[in-house]
Amino acid sequence: MGHQARQQDRPLDRQLQLDSDPLTAVPSRSLHRARRGTGANPDRRAELTLGALAVALLALIGVMAVTVAINAWPSFSANGLNWFASGGDVDAQLRAMQEGRPLPGHALLYFRAWPLIWGTLLTTLGAVVIALFVSTLAAIFLTEFAPMPVRRVLRPVVRLLAAVPSVVYGLIGILAIAPWIEGLIGNGRRQSVIYVVQLNGANLTTATLILTVMILPIMVAISANALEAVPVSWREGSAALGVNRWRTIWRVSLRTARPAIAAATVLATARALGEAIMLAMVSGGRGFAANPLDGLTFLFEPAQPLAATIVREFGGQSTGPIPHTIYAIAAVLLFSAAMLSLAAWAAKQPLKRYGIRA
Amino acid sequence: METAELLAAPERRVALRPPRDSTRSWPLIDRIGYWLCWVTGIGLCVIALAIVLFMFIKGLSFLRPALFVQSPAPSLHQDQAGGFLDPILGTLILTALGTLIAAPTGVAIAAWLTEYGRPSWLARAVESAIEMIAGAPSIVLAIFGLLIFAQGFLGFLSQTASNGSVTGQSFFAAGAIMALLALPLIIGSTREALAQLPDRLREGSWALGKNRATTIRHVLLPAIRPSIASGIVLGMGRIIGDTAIVTILLGATLKTEAVGGAPILGNLRGTGSTLTSYVFANSPAGEGNAHEKAYAAAFVLMLIVLVLNAIVTRLTGDRASAEERRPWRSRLRRVTAWTR
What we know:
The structure holds two protein chains of two kinds. Chain A is an all-alpha fold. Chain A has 15 helices and no strands. Chain A is about 70% helix and about 0% strand. The two termini of chain A are about 35 Å apart. Helix content of chain B is about 70%, strand content about 0%. Chain B has helices at about 1-15, 30-60, 65-70, 85-115, 120-135, 140-150, 170-195, 200-205, 210-225, 225-240, 245-250, 265-270, 275-280, 290-315, 320-325, 325-335. At the A-B interface, helix 4, helix 6, helix 7, helix 8 and helix 10 of A face helix 2, helix 4, helix 5, helix 6 and helix 7 of B.
């Protein structure tokens, strides 16, 4: 009660000032916390009902982590840390599991995932690095240079690109981009690796290109939001010192928004990592570890990322060697995604210091 | 002559206002950056335009009215392989099911997080759980769903094979996991809007003797209706666009296959396909390999996405002023006008 009285003693103008200050526009929680004690019975019931739903969601995540880990365990325990290592043809290993006939000299669950992991790393990192440059420039254009009519068009365009289903991207990739990329592969190049791998239009380059377009919108949206949240007075200060607009953007806006751009990059990485259907369509569908020593040919070698492997190998059953392997892949993906969202959270922390919500 | 000069003078003074921002005085490297910005910005528009145009041209050239009313049929000849009536119905059913589960749950959790949120450690844990769902690949969610719904005691939600094992593939299962996919979007936009509501609104309601629950139900939620709606539409877009969950949890069978005799319930317990899985199956990567069908279905899919996109733009009102973007402000002004 005394606490409540103190709250009311606070001068009104101070309360108003707090509420209207744009930097601390988050509603002051202290005001309603004071009245919590007066909650009547139905209110408490409502709180418990809503809270129970939230806790159920929390429990579901726990169940998900545990069940996926339990089902993944046989594969991990059979292979140990070598699960992540390279060794043999991963496609042959998966085929052996499908047919129930172990490879000579190996257990049925024998699995070396390196080619799949390598494919995931290549497509994801390639797409993220390209998208980082493009999205930063596009976000600057969107917030600073674009004339009003262009800006009005660009925003819905970004949202549209984000909303296009991944299967449509995959269809465009396999039917429009892949034949074009295939034309770029010379016959000599094709012959040079004919005994190792067959080159066609579905390869690393196609997968990375389409993946870049897929993750661009989310990065542009987050970066543009952060750039817009940079206080105008900071930029005005820079401009008043005679710094031109580009340098102001580069030195003030971009530096302030850097945590948000980092967070956007991490989120986009998570998105690229989890993309399954599109990559299953355009990445070549071959568990082949592309070799950077092959020079330019490397760009046209097929790959199969982890998530796409799940789509290709999934057969409907939920126990057996193949499902155990699939759940092991899923566990790796889930763990990486969790780590990435943790990283995104950590990357965003400095923004709070500036009082910028992004 | 003199009068003319006098008349001209003020004009010259007007011309003295700050010159238009020009890049001509910038160092070369800054100008390169400036032009790169333009190139990427226009490039984005061109890519989007190319995608939309490509899908429209291909889609319209292969679209036949008959495709909408025929069920897909297994056939080697494309003329006899039917249309995509079942996938369209599947998309509708799945979206409705997912939204029906996700919308109330999402709004409730968002309300709890912003309006109650205690104990605070629990709220923070729930927040990170939502982040995790948002970040989890949908393919992982899908095979997790298969683990859950293949449990024996959940057999009534899908099909039980003759040997007693549960398939775990049904509209129910897919809808539930799809709801998980849409949940973070709905929670996100609801929370954002609730946090932006000024405290005056809550305090006014409490001052009238309303408790927190009533305040949420009758004051706060009505005030943020457009934001909730846009969250739901975004979630629907996510559900419609997802393929991984459909291929794994819905079975992606050619036709909608009912289980048991009950008319609607049997369908929901059975397997089916959606437009996305139909496109996937008919692409070169799938079994069907029929470009024309895939293009036509993808065109319909794009149309749905475009419409949803337009709805979101309408709801959030991009080109509108801040006044329109935050409808509660004008409503609030109307409500509180007499108190000032």
